[in-house]
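User: Sequence in, structure out. Go.
Assistant: Echoing your sequence, followed by the structure tokens.
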Amino acid sequence: MTMPIDRPILLFGMPRSGTTWLGKIFDSHPRTLYRHEPDTFEPLAGLPLLADPGEVERHRESLQRYLAEVVEMRSERVCAKQPIFPKAYSSGAGHSLHRFGALASKAAGRLGVDLPVPGAGAPRGEEAWRLAWKSIESLGRLGLLLDACPDARAVQILRHPCGFVASVLRGEAAQRFTHGGAAEDWGIFTMLCATAQAQRRGLTLEALKQMEPSERLAWRWVLFNEKASEDSARSGRCRPLHYEELCADPLRVTQELFRFCELDWDEQTARFLHDSTSNAKGDYYSVFKDPLESAWKWRRELPAEDARRVLAVVAQSELGAAYLGESRWNRRTGSG
């Protein structure tokens, strides 16, 4: 038996929005048990991607059961994301087992062998710990999850819509994804058109099909993020986070996030923030990047006409206000 899941931390956002760096920041805390996109690899059966919070009673039991399953997962894709951090609830030998086990599991995966990660299981002792669940799959379920788990805390991360669009298009051009083009995922767009956020605008699938790919991706950004934001707002337990805000001042913002999530500060996180922002690596999925370069690279990558299309769409959402004005962390949108 594991300890009861006490106050899970939900780190949710759209793909290519900084969720992996955010997840590893929380993983760097010695009392978190980190799970990397478990719902992508082991889906929540029977729960729509765009869930109605009004159906919380229908799904509460299955969601709580899934949380317990997440804790027990040992899949390489969920438990082997680098770097692997020492934990207060695990011995030095346990940390080494997890670290080397993750490498072994990854090597086995390349050979088509599914090898559970040794040392990645849930804590068995009496040490306190917190589950940190990073997701790009369940953003549209965030409000329902918060209602089903009244002691949970959540962080919804948003990236500049132009940065999101540029990164998705770059990844697709490099064939980084196993799925088809996000701008032509008509199944997702059909579901999005059924949301209150689309219906109050009269937005239809037929209208989306007439748009340029960058415009459709911008609407995808708006509708997913609006739904998550509106559904979770009433809980008072979700902290919106702009990726650029985190990039501009990683230490201060992380300390604020930890206070919100009721985590004490630890120097292991401070060291990871230093290392991850001062040792840039070129890999598409790397968490070691120059944060400001990563945040604003879209200015060089995204054609000006596409950027104008994206900003015209986002201007129709209150969520776009942060990116259309100036703040401590947002650059003037018209500057070079």
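User: And one key feature?
Assistant: The mean pLDDT is 90.
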